Amino acid sequence: MDEPTAFVEFRNVQKSYDGETLVVKDFNLAIARGEFVTMLGPSGSGKTTCLMMLAGFEPATHGEILLGGKPINDVPPHKRGIGMVFQNYALFPHMSVAENLAFPLMVRKIPAAEIEQKVSRALEMVELPEFGKRRPAQLSGGQQQRVAVARALVFDPELILMDEPLGALDKQLREQMQYEIKHLHETLGITMVYVTHDQSEALTMSDRIAVFNDGVVQQLATPSELYEKPENAFVASFIGENNRLNGAVSSVEGSVCVVDLDGGGTVRAAKVNVDGVGARASLSIRPERIELAPESGSMANEFRGRIEDLIYLGDHIRVRMSVAGTDEFIVKVRNTASRGNLKKGDEMSVGWHSEDCRALDPIEV
Amino acid sequence: MTVSAADSIDPGVPLVTPDGRPLKLALAQATRRARIRAFALVVPLLLFVLVTFAFPIGQMLYLSIHNPVFSDHMPRLTAYLTEHPDVQVPGEEGFAALALDLADAKKNRTAGRIGTRVNYERPGSNSLFKSSARKAAKFKGPPYKEKLLEIRSDWGEPHLWNVMRRASAQHTLDFYAAALDLTHDENGDLSQVSPERRIYVRLFWRTLFLSAVIAFLCLLLGYPVAHLLATLPLRYSNLLMILVLLPFWTSLLVRTTSWIALMQSQGVINDILVTLGIVGDDGRVQMMYNQFGTIIAMTHILLPFMILPLYSVMKTIPPSYVRAARSLGATPLTAFIKVYFPQTTPGIGAGILLVFILAIGYYITPALVGGSSGQLISNQIAFHMQKSLNWSLAAALGAILLFMVILLYWVYDRLVGVDKMKLG
Ligand SMILES: Nc1ncnc2c1ncn2[C@@H]1O[C@H](COP(=O)(O)OP(=O)(O)OP(=O)(O)O)[C@@H](O)[C@H]1O
Ligand SMILES: [Mg+2]
Fold first, then answer.
1. Whose CA is nearest to atom 4 of ligand 1?
2. Are residues A311 and A355 in the same domain?
3. Chain B residues with CB inside 8 Å of A90's CB?
4. Where does a domain end: A210, A233, A256?
5. What class has domain B200-420?
6. Is A86 in contact with B325 (Cβ distance < 8 A)?
7. Which of A101, A116, A119, B210 lies deepest, with the highest CB count within 10 Å?
């Protein structure tokens, strides 16, 4: 089998700009053909840097980047055949929309008739058939964004990189464009590497997400896996809402461990990322997996708590409680008829299953 | 079609404010006060510009057509020539006017000035007027024609009379003709002056040519520097910026003199060349006091005027454009030509225009390092202002220069658009 399974591959890639600090530390990522992979992470975590290394604008200080099985470290950007959408779109201001779209075809010396045909097809694809003669400055943000996407697609690259392409758009337009990009990805079947720091964007669009922090991939998984089964405390707190309880492991029974909480009490939790008896751990519990006033004995973990705050959000109610020594314990309650009588100051029990509570590496605040 | 609020109002009915005044009137009153105050603020500047700029230029333009010397100091002859527009060499009546005016000129010591004026067009007239005036002052009476012709037979020359007739006009375009190396021949028709006296047209061309060469050299040298300035990390670019601006902090004279010290035939560069054996001691390269010297020194002096507008434009071009071009398949060269360069054209236009216009009027540097082949038109203007005292000709040369600059500006506006220019 010569055919490699990965279309894009980062192998032990490191990057430093100043020779003193590593911006990207030992980055490994394999992307299959046709996949939509998102790099998600807080600002400054090295996402753009990784994308720039893939596009060829920044050299990797160590490691290999492979495209279609071939190392491309020494291939200049214009020979990589990668389409790219920049955060500010980078549409050439001195060219019309049609000229912008024709640019990648023109530099490839494609015959004029064919260029014209491809350009008009690309304009139709992004639903801007009438806009070829306009200058980029005469377009709205969303239209510019579409032109940028069309320009990256028009020369039929197999790989498209997008660096926070929707960052400048308002929420509604952003959601619409997310859908459109996803749709294009599905119909064209191209491979996409997408960068964002918006987790909901990453969750809705991606096949897989690489969560970045501090130059390291914390977890690479499908959206549901990331949410349901975070492998470390950073991912758990970065993706979605999360309750964290700190403590020390007192005993381990197979896949379940018992943790003595700093705030008092013990919790049975799924052992995911702890070293063993005596090690510090942070427990992660999703707010919607917690039940208020559960039937006694039905759940592995039961605590007494007091309601500090109620926020009415229509379909659900967000309840802030003090539980086990923290007053930032969030419970999401479905807005059913029986739940209408919660009041601030009420004391009641809360409970959760041990498999919904993951014991992860400690983060001390 | 959406109908905006303004469209939906019937244009036939004028809008009124709640107290019944027409809205237009209310608006005009409300804005008038602000306008008056704003105008009062610019009045000092306006006066300053008028007094120091518009007025002198207007005066200079007037000077280039104003020709009072002859008519002021030869009133009788001027009156005679106006009354007899067709006469070539006049009879006794005309000579009488001439002789009496010449006698007055001797008395008022103006014969030299009149002679100088006529001399512009007819060489040798200076001494003719001076000597004739001296003698005419001693005439006791007629026949003047006979007596004058006796002193100098030149007075019977139709050409001289043609010249005097033209010189007697209060307003004339003759200075412009002279500034373009044209003169009136024996028959009074416009024709080129004799080849050895044709200097101005050639000088205008040379000025234009050298300015274009200098602007082009500035662009060639300044473009990479401006690019570096715009893209280097801040601490290096600050240092570079100081180096670029350094020439501004040194006196023009000092800089020009140091060029002389470097490049004259006994200067540093030649000494090095001789020491290295590249040229022999008798074959020292002549780099100063010729066009080469003018070009080198002026390029150096005007370079910042090219770099700064270029820099201010390049600073606004984010690196993502070139990166986008590269990712779309353009080689570095194509990305530069098709994407980067076109976006710098406003800076190029501004820089070229600035350098070119400054170079056209440059004076000190060519005067110091230009020798005779590196002189520009402004050196001739200075000559007529300071040495020959033919201010009208200087004004005409200056006006032509001004006209050329305006023409250039207009052409630039048509080709590029002045609103697209970025000066910094
Ligand atoms: N050209 C550069 N020279 C030096 N340091 C750089 C350069 N570009 C980025 N960095 C540093 O590298 C780190 C990672 O930057 P990067 O742009 O990859 O972050 P990012 O994850 O894309 O962040 P954001 O979400 O804000 O875009 C940052 O600390 C940044 O300061
Ligand atoms: Mg970034």
1. A17
2. yes
3. 318, 320-321, 323-324
4. A233
5. mainly alpha
6. no
7. A101
Q: Do A269 and A191 sit in the same domain of this protein?
A: no
pLDDT tens for each residue of B263-306? 888 889 899 999 998 888 888 888 888 899 899 999 999 999 99
SS (H, E, C) chain B: CCCCHHHHCCCCCCCECCCCCEHHHHHHHHHHHHHHHHHHHHHHHHHHHHHHHHHHHHHHHHHCCECCHHHHHCHHHHHHHHHCCCCCCCCHHHHHHHHHHHHHHHHHCCHHHHHHHHHCCCCCHHHHHHHHHHHHCCCCCCCHHHHHHHHCHHHHCHHHHHHHHHHCCCECCHHHHHHCCEEECCCCCEEECCHHHCCHHHHHHHHHHHHHHHHHHHHHHHHHHHHHHHHCCHHHHHHHHHHHHHHHHCCHHHHHHHHHHHHCCCCHHHHHHHHCCCCCHHHCCCCCCCHHHHHHHHHHHHHHHHHHHHHHHHCCCCCHHHHHHHHCCCCHHHHHHHHHHHHHHHHHHHHHHHHHHHHHCCCHHHHHHCCCCCCCHHHHHHHHHHCCCCHHHHHHHHHHHHHHHHHHHHHHHHHCCHHHCCCC
A98 shares a domain with A36 = yes
**A128-170: pLDDT as tens digits:** 888 999 999 999 888 998 899 999 999 999 899 999 888 878 8
A341 or A33, which is more confident?
A: A33
CATH number, residue A324:
2.40.50.100
Q: Whose CA is nearest to atom 16 of ligand 1?
A: A46
Distance A54 CA to ligand 2 centre (A): 14
Residue where a domain stops, chosen among A187, A203, A233 = A233
Q: Is the pLDDT of residue B28 over 50?
A: yes
pLDDT digits (tens, 9 = 90+) for B47-85: 999 999 999 999 989 999 998 989 999 999 999 999 988
Nearest ligand to the CA of A215 is 1
Domain that holds residue A177: 3-233
- Split into its structural domains, chain A has a count of 2
Atom of ligand 1 nearest to the CA of A197: 25
Are both A313 and A354 inside the same structural domain?
yes
ipTM: 0.80
